[in-house]
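Sorry, explain these tokens?

___
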Amino acid sequence: MQPRTSKSIKPGQPASAQGTVHPDHALETAYLAKTMDLLRQSLADELDKLIQSKKDLLEAREDLQDNLPGSPNDTDKRADTSQSLNALRAQAAAYQTIQYKIAQYKRMESSPYFGRVDFTETGYPKESIYIGRGTLIDHANGHIRIYDWRAPVSSIFYRYGLGAASYLAPAGEISGQVTLKRQYDIQEGQLAYFIDTDINIDDQVLRYALSQNATPQMKAIVETIQKEQDQIIRDMDSELLLVQGSAGSGKTSVALHRVAYLMYQGLTSPLAAHHIIIVSPNALFSQYIAQVLPDLGEENIASLTFDTVFSNLDMVRPVETRSQQAEALLGNPDTEAAALEREMLAFKISSVFCTLLDRLIWHYEHKILTFPDFYYNGRYLARRQDLKAELLRDRVKIPLTKRLAQIQERLLEKIHEAKKDRIPSLEEFVSNHPDHQLEIRGFARLLSVKRSASLVHAAQQITILDPLSIYKLLFEDPVLFGRLAKGLSLPENIADILSACRRRLDTETLSHVDGAALTYLKTKLDGPVAYPDIQQVIVDEVQDYGALHFTLLNLWFPNARYTVLGDISQSMERQASMDLYDEIQRVLHKKKAAMVILRQSYRSSYEIGRFCRRFLDYPETVEPFERHEAEPEVHGCADQEAADQALIEGIRECRQAQCRSIAVICKTMSDAKDLYQRLRGQFALRLVTEDTPHIGSGALILPVYLAKGLEFDAVLAYGTDAGHYSTPDDRRLLYIACTRALHHLSLYYFGSKSPLI
């Protein structure tokens, strides 16, 4: 393997590299020195404020305790308590604000800013705008010494070169001219270099940033945000923002920077961390992205996986995880059975299947659900036909379980009244039969309870619904399925799909997609547990979801805007197309929707990116970034032992080349475990499973479906033979595996090489 050379190259270097000092070098050094002095002083001031604020907070707490009322009727004390509580809240908010500023200043100590634009607003003098990860104000003169990268004026740095430029401020659009654009590398408060650029974020600076080693967790990219990425980050108009991006285009990172931007805007509008949620493919991915927002100075946001949702289902049987679904599908040696499984999965997450489930609920309510007669003490309390008519009358928009609960409540009231009415006759009966040792009234009540117990039990049973039994109705009766599916567009092999569905429902564990269907069914029957406070939902790896998933999200988060990111070339369980984004728009039905396509791939070297394009149906949709390193290598070996030895040598070479993260990617977890057992004595290898708490660095072995969304310095794809990779679905798996690599890619096989390579 050839060692990388681009890592040692630094762009710029105006003094040592060019042999001459930049005319502005002294000015820039002086500006940085003064900025560092101001930053340190501002930090010291805030630390002093924190001490005083803590004292004020403690005093406010003591004041609240002193003003607690001794009794609920002490109205004067209650007024004092309310006033003290408001003061405590104000002091707590002030304390948190100071803490936020201190954390921001500490993050800026090493590198306070990274960019500058000289902007002349029409009719005003030129202003030099320095841009960093936070704001720094010189309170002596009110001058903003550093602008936060999310400030409106900072968008000029990301979107314009020299010449005419504009940005959208709260007062409206501001136009003017950019006369200088400069980028800096500041380390430990010292100016390493700066470079002037004419157009976008300088390619030389970007190449240097991309040539660095991968980190165990995703990191912030504020210094190298590109124009098209900035447009996504700052979009405040779209209720639904759809992003189709190639592997390595920065989709996930851009989404997280968008979250940070939205929270920054929340300084003037009520958008906090608890108003945002991200839907992740798995817990491992959630951990991988967990550090980005803290790096940007924001509180982390909650993440949601469908695995977690399904694990909380109150079902008789457990639901498999998404990783288990992928393992079963990718590890199935029967290609025809695997193909049928994919078709079944695609059908069950479609909008057609949602319609079928809605019709099934209607059929169950109208045609299957029955009530018993409620007969007590010689008269009907309620007849079955009357109860059914009540269920279906006027309240069909109320979820079924809630309508049944209302009927149950009225029935229990009637039973209770009937019991009371019968007490006198039972007392008379008891008094005429004195062959007992109990008090007459108490014994009469005991008889009343016993004789009505069966009625109470029957009333309690009517609200108990079994979603799984209802769900099975859809597949057990072909005639019923035909009636419910009338007018719907079904797959040509629907009979085979239904047979496969019946077989799958007979297993001990419910499939992942059946978990989604049952969640939908239960949500429709019981009514959604909605979270109206969620205002922004980020959905990543959208190519693995369907209409069923987005219908659920729409039920849970009815007031939210959506940022949806995916790559149809990285779908694993089914063939995805651009129609997916149209379907999402139909399901979420947002009035203001926008679509953005990111074709530029930044992660991999140009050579790796060019190699990966062979796995695409439309290679022209991906544009590799011009960062050159070694060509990918394909190693054919005589047998498994030779392949293992070649892999061991490959890991050793990657380590010698200073690769911090090395991923050995197999097709399935079964393959990964087998390889791990054979190699575990050779290196300090780690096997990554869906239960691994964090990725870390070093040499890892993992299946391709857990590698999605992650990146590594080196990827060694193992087992790339014809037996493992030969179908169009396998082509997408190879694309996923190979595009995880930043600097080095090798493929290993023995026997026949995959025809896809």
Q: What stands out?
A: The radius of gyration is 33 Å. Confidence is low (pLDDT under 50) at residues 1-18.
